[in-house]
Structure to design on (210 residues):
């Protein structure tokens, strides 16, 4: 009878050891908490697709943006300028121009800030500058996040002191990744009304490219 009691006690002690371990601590399996809900997997960060698309025709600027020069507009002979600059030469007047179309890009400004900066740069090289009221524009392209435009007039002064009256506008386009492409377009006032559609055409081809 005594032997049976001892055997029962040993079996009971063994069960306790299996449950609690030798020193009374919980086993590793018991220390691991149960998972609460489903593990969260963050969505991948969108990245820009700057590959060439069907509307990317003519001159590549950068960030996947292109524009098509109007007929008669030629690349600027000054290759030190940033971006892409095209000029309209005066008819039968070598070395003189009637206008320019200059595209530049940045990630340091938003659309409004870059447009204002470029107008300030232009005004430093002219006399009698008048800057129009800024306008928030909404191009028909969902890839353009923001757009801002400014007009300006002023006199460009040649080396011989001759004043040339200019009229132009800066339009800045900001994409979904906050990269800004701005066009600085101007013509001599005497030809502005007749040829401004050429500037508008180039802007429209650039808008489609985004």
């Amino acid at each position: 009878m005594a032997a049976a009691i001892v055997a029962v006690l040993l079996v009971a002690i063994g069960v306790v050891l299996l449950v609690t371990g030798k020193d009374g601590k919980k086993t590793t399996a018991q220390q691991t908490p149960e998972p609460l809900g489903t593990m969260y997997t963050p969505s991948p960060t969108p990245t820009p697709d700057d590959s060439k698309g069907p509307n990317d025709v003519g001159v590549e600027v950068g960030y996947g943006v292109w524009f098509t020069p109007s007929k008669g507009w030629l690349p600027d002979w000054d290759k030190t300028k940033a971006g892409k600059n095209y000029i309209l030469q005066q008819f039968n007047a070598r070395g003189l121009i009637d206008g320019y179309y200059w595209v530049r890009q940045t990630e340091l400004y938003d659309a409004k800030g870059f447009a204002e900066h470029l107008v300030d740069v232009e005004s430093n090289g002219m006399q009698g500058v008048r800057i129009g009221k800024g306008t928030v524009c909404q191009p028909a392209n969902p890839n353009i996040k923001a757009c801002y435009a400014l007009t300006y007039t002023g006199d460009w002064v040649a080396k011989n002191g001759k004043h040339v009256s200019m009229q132009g506008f800066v339009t800045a386009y900001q994409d979904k990744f906050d990269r800004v492409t701005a066009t600085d377009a101007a013509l001599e006032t005497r030809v502005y009304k007749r040829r401004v559609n050429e500037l508008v055409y180039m802007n429209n081809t650039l808008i489609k490219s985004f």
About this structure: Helices lie at 2-20, 28-31, 111-124, 189-209.
